[in-house]
Task: structure prediction
Amino acid sequence: MAIFLNYTSKIVVQGMTGAEGRKHTQRMIMSGTRVVGGVTPGKGGQSVRFEEDPVPVFDSVHEAVAETGADVSVVFVPAPYAKAAVMEAVDARIPLVVCITEGIPVRDTAEFFTAAQKSGATRIVGPNCPGLISPGRSNAGIIPANIAGRGRIGLVSKSGTLTYQMMYELSDFGFSTAVGIGGDPIIGTTHIDCLREFEADPETQAIMMIGEIGGDAEERAAEFIAANVTKPVVGYVAGFTAPEGRTMGHAGAIVSGSAGTAEAKKKALEAVGVRVGKTPSGAAALMADIMRSMPRD
Result:
């Protein structure tokens, strides 16, 4: 099953002809992803060769969808142009848009996220995220495919780097899907969205949730877990040693008073039965204990 992404997904890459788009398209294809086209205005009719196979380039997402049946777009468009790129994908009613771009103004994100919600047809992952991977099936973004195989853990994380670390540390068990949701103040897909999907996914046995200081997303996730999640959840909250009142890394990671601190989030999660590690390795060890205790098919 997996969530959001599987072996049938047909991916188009917006910005495929640029340096980053080309590099990561190559990596996606090498991991078995079905990349059916790229989009760069003015370069329609060209193609980019990856290994032995040419991938066609289209002038617009509409054209790419009409020609290939693409149902996922991965956006590698520079920040000043990212809003227009995502809006184009939303207008083309692409079911899943994965926006890797960082540095997008919050107002731009708010506009394209609102457009996606109004469309009722498009889910956005990101922006400022590593994307998502269903190991052995498909990889939409920049998550290295060689750090973990297919398994029964569902992972949702605000942090790209911690996504990679957790996948590496739990590589003996593997993942159904790992989703890097990004750490900007406005993101398209949340912890709660992923928790809901993992709870419904029969291939996911346990859930790893990585948060960070700032905002109240983890507290809201805790409320959702208490009411809706029956599978075991392990958490980690980045920022236990962060100084109060300082923005740390992600644009959304700012603490005000006691609100949004790592300790407050840890308490909220533990209050609903989530086991929380004080370090990434500690959280991985907690999940490893859970997975060893579970029956294997």
